[in-house]
Automatic annotation (TrEMBL):
Residues 40-158 form the Gcp-like domain. GO terms for biological process: tRNA threonylcarbamoyladenosine modification. This is Gcp-like domain-containing protein. It comes from Corynebacterium frankenforstense DSM 45800. InterPro entries: ATPase_NBD, Gcp-like_dom, T6A_TsaB. NCBIfam families: T6A_YeaZ (TIGR03725). GO terms for cellular component: cytosol.
Amino acid sequence: MTTLALDTSTARLVVGLVDGVSDAARPAPVVRAARVLDDARRHNELLVPTIAEVLAEAGLNYADIDRVVCGCGPGPFTGLRVGMATAAATADALGVPLRGVCSLDAVARSPRLSGRVALVVSDARRREAYWATYDAAGARTAGPEVCAPADLPLPAGLAVVSAPDTLAEKLPETGDAELVELYPEPAGLVTAPEVEFRPIYLRRPDAVAPTVRVSPALRP
């Protein structure tokens, strides 16, 4: 099975083609081609061309894709919309299954976090952070939620914190926990638990509907 894996929940644009599914009966997933672009403002412009690039590198075309997996956040409205709309349109056009995963769960699948109690954090902007905690087996124990970086919960036995550099100085004191910066990689997206395919926003959007004032002369 060849999976197209996408994530646009962070400042990084992640695109990968992954063979195999990691479970007891099948081999571990193999990443055939991948791109990670650090340009949040150009997700919409770069996503489709980047998919074409990884297909060409792997010697495949769209007809070789067996399913599509996409990170559903948490993340900002615009970023999630770009990735999820592209994933849904691609799966629909190809007639293949579409699978959603929590982007923080995908980060928790990183080998850097294997066997360690972890706190996974991403930048929510507005001086806030998205977060979830994981036990040593990689199972989510709390979250996803959003809060100020200083209010992030620190689970007992915390061994590693994954957080972007933009938040590193705003985190609470984490003791001896290792601080790393990870992102949702293609293999993690493919092996993370499935969630409902809908954006995980966690808070109200920045946009506010305008108030419409009607002149008394036009009222019935």
